[in-house]
Amino acid sequence: MSERGTSCCRTEEDRISFLPDDLLCQILSHVPTKTGVMTSVLSTRWRTIWLSIPILDLHTDDFPNFTALASFISRFLDGSSCLHKLKLAFGSGRPIRDISNEFMRLAFNFTGIIGDISSNPAYLMTQWINNAVTRKVQHVDILYPTKDILARWIVGMMKMPLSIYTCETLVSLKLCNVSLADSENFSLPRLKIMRLVGNVYTNDAFLEKLISSCPVLEELVVRNRDTEYNFRVLQVCSKSLKSLVVDLDGRENVFKDFRVVVIDAPGLNNLRLKDNQFTIYVISNLGSSAKVDIDVSFNLKRSVVRSAVRMRSLYTMLVRGMTTSSSKRSVMRSFFTMLSSVRDMTISQTTLEGVCLNLKHKPEPQFSYLIRLHVILYNSDLGKLPNILECCPNLKSLVLELSNLKKEELLFSSSSSVPVCLRSSLEYVEIKTPMSGAVAEIELVKYFLENSTVLKKFKMCLRCGRKNEESKILMERLRLSRCSPSCEVVVQLEELREETSLKL
Hints:
Elements: H1 3-13, H2 21-28, H3 33-38, E1 55-59, H4 66-78, E2 85-89, H5 94-107, H6 121-134, E3 139-143, H7 149-157, E4 159-160, E5 172-176, E6 179-180, E7 193-197, E8 200-201, H8 204-212, E9 219-223, E10 233-237, E11 243-247, E12 259-264, E13 270-275, E14 279-284, E15 291-296, H9 304-310, H10 313-322, H11 328-338, E16 344-347, H12 349-359, E17 372-378, H13 379-382, H14 385-390, E18 397-403, H15 420-424, E19 428-435, H16 439-451, E20 457-462, H17 469-480, E21 488-493, E22 498-503
Parallel strand pairs: 1-2, 2-3, 3-5, 4-6, 5-7, 6-8, 7-9, 9-11, 10-12, 11-13, 12-14, 13-15, 15-16, 16-17, 17-18, 18-19, 19-20, 20-21
Antiparallel strand pairs: 21-22
């Protein structure tokens, strides 16, 4: 290779080093801090670039021990005047074991001599977060492990510093498996995203105060599973909130008493509720444009009245107003009534059992504004599909997922009336579960194609491609069955991963 060619190659290889520091820092801000540090060995030009990155993103398992972790963080913060993001993920390696050993030493130090407080993990964590707050941090993400008893004990010992509740620059706060101490002062004027997962809360009022201190909050996730520290009352009142996830799913019988979740957020666009325990929901001012995803089991095995006696006044007030007969039906009816104005809904098979239970009683729940419905059905509930659709007179889009379908069982009686939506509004039907052409599946397809007068598109997934004889029968049924002359049938072949469109 000529000398000129060699020179060009060298220039190309090192071209990135000629970029300005600001641009290099921006590039490195998209990778973990560990990766950024590794660039320091490239050349003298790169030796200190990583120290100028306004992001500290670390995993404790990347360090040989807690001392090395603490030294690194201290060095980084000492050389940084501005910090945009602090992310610390505590794994199960040597550093977290060092922390537990230090706490054990302090716990069993009967001499009363604590020693150098600067080596105390709880003290250092408080200092790190306080330093981040003074450096106008915008994003804080702290994750602790909870896979063993010692780790859970550490969570209880290492509480978040109070300064985190009054950080004026904070935009995003994500806390997982941490312990949150109560405070008299809460003010997060710029916080837009808050995710609270598996945390330990001092009391029910804490969460209410924390949420209400965020005037521009747009996204909130509250997820607590399988923990004795779960709250009994959760109140979410926010005019700015656009997305809310409440996930209280966990082992049955973890909670001795029922819970109450109060939601008042008129600006919600997305609401997801997941809960297999006994929870009473009070939802008000839910706009029709909200998209809801419901997976609630209404586990009411415990005695409501007996539990209410032990609860504080809010519990008692809500239970008296909503569940005077302590019945599943009254609680579920109130719940579905609160959702009656939504236009887009996803319902799990567990929640649908509650809908089917209410279908036996008058008046039936009505979803007059519902346009899009995504539902997961057990085989035992599929025969009630016409009744469910009758509750949605203006439905335009239906997506079905089938669970435990008995292939040879007839689903509908010949006397079943055709729901209003099939005759006037339903334009799109999709069956996501792969079908093979069994009797029950053919009947389901036939039901929609022969009764939907304004259907524009019917989509399904066919198992085993065209080689299966039952699949061929189903394909022939698709050609013969029709009610809407303009309906397009889209068949996705599962094995071939291709689609075939049939114009009926």
